[in-house]
Amino acid sequence: MKTKLKDIEPRLREIFDYLHENPEIAWQEYHTTAYIIHLLEQEGYKVHTFSNSTGLYVEIGQGKPVIGLRTDMDALWQEVDGEMRANHSCGHDGHMTMIIGVLLLMKKLNPQFNGTLRVLFQPAEEKGQGALSFVEKGLVDDMDYLFGVHLRPFQELEDGTYSPALHHGASMMIAAEIYGVEAHAARPHLGKNAIEIGSSLVEALKSIHIDTMIPYSVKVTKFHAGGESGNIIPGKAFINLDVRAQTNDGMEKLVQDIHRITNAISTLYDARIVLKVLVDIAAAQVDEEAKEILEHAIIQSVGHEKVRPPLFTPGGEDFHFYAKQRPNIKTTMLGVGCHLTPGLHHPNMTFNRERLITGVEILTRTVLCAFEYARLMNNVSQSQQKAVSED
User: Fold this and answer.
1) Secondary structure (3-state) at 389
2) Three-state SS for 14?
3) Contacts of 228 (CB under 8 A, 6+ apart)
4) Which residues contact 130 (CB under 8 A, 6 or more apart)?
5) pTM (whole model) above 0.85
6) What burial class does residue 326 get, using C-beta atoms within 10 Å of its C-beta: 0-12 exposed, 13-18 middle, 19+ buried?
7) Sequence-distant (≥ 6) Cβ neighbours of residue 391 within 8 angstroms
8) Count of C-beta atoms within a 10 Å radius of residue 291
9) Which of 141, 192, 263, 360 has the most CB atoms in a 10 Å sphere around its CB?
10) Among 199, 210, 217, 215, which residue's Cα sits nearest to residue 273?
11) What is the pLDDT of residues 222-250, one digit of tens each?
């Protein structure tokens, strides 16, 4: 495998360079989609696309089991060197390169396996909407295993090491719209000051406490009220909350408490407060079988000494919606240590691109190991059924 991987290295570098230099934001990955379609069709793959969105998928083989690989495609919109533009500062260009690399390597290896490999190129991860759109399209309904990948910052994984599981936390962004009553500042008794209402809400949110064994936070990240005139009591205020918990159960409890406190403040001031969920990301539900398969593939590729324990990270990743929405799927994500610095989402993020090549090998071995594991489990099941019938 390593020899054939060496053969495609120059091509992978070209692919990464193109994807890195042509970033597109969520739901607008038109050129990215077209580029990948053209590339894979030239390699002889049949590409499946969608009439109502960007993204695509490819299948190899047929029948069960169904092994899935998923990459995200979109870039962030941020200021880079004084200019607002799309920017691949979360590593999705690297993720796409690795998954494309698996398909290129598979063509060279031409392995024989029973089942289906389905490779998903998913849009809109940064919006927290892309995975749900693929769930709605039925792309994972029959999947047995689904594997993802994410580059990790140097604070989490040292360069050249790999983790078989990423335990991202649940995250949610909630907007609170506060509707009081405007009045002249000389007659405050005629109004309901939205700033005072909002300030009470901010203070009350500090009283939220859940199980201390679950890392969590509720933070106000935006508070806007008032206009140009300083002698008007504002009747409207807008607050954004960033809510995080390491587990989905913890997030559910936080949201219940936020609603309870909001209703109490609304009653106290006799004012209307409307909560709107802007972003909702599920926490990881790592499957032990999937993790063991991925860990075995890491060992095959780089040895025991390069394996690191599962990572627990407060960041969010919409990959985990797949397992939350379809609990039958066994999922995990490969964490790639690549000296990513200064950090994810930094406008000038960089990493060691050599690790993408190793990532291709690990993910390819993961797919082949998953098919072999499924075959062995099927043989065990058949032997057990035969033994029962003979008894």
Assistant:
1) helix
2) helix
3) none
4) 26, 55, 72, 73, 74, 122, 123, 124, 318
5) yes
6) middle
7) none
8) 18
9) 360
10) 199
11) 999 999 999 999 999 999 999 999 999 99
Tell me how many domains the chain contains: 2
Q: Indicate whether 220 belongs to any domain.
A: yes
Regarding beta strands 47-48 and 183-184, do their DSSP bridges make them parallel or antiparallel, or are they unpaired?
unpaired
User: Is residue 170 scored above 90 in pLDDT?
Assistant: yes
**Both tokens of residue 197?**
């209402």
Looking up residue 181, the CATH number of its domain turns out to be 3.30.70.360
Distance of CA 115 to the CA centre of its chain: 26
Note the pLDDT of residue 359: 98
Choose one of 281, 313, 328: the last residue of a domain: 281
At 151 the three-state DSSP class reads: strand
Phi, psi of 317 (to 5 degrees): -160, 120
- Single out the residue of 177, 170, 18, 25 nearest to residue 86, CA to CA: 25
pLDDT, tens digit, for every residue of 248-260? 999 999 999 999 9
3-state secondary structure of 3: helix
Can you name the residues that pair with 331 across neighbouring β-strands? 146
200: its two tokens: 């009470």
Instruction: Report, as an integer, the average pLDDT of 56-62.
Output: 97
Instruction: Please say which residue of 218, 250, 281 terminates a domain.
Output: 281
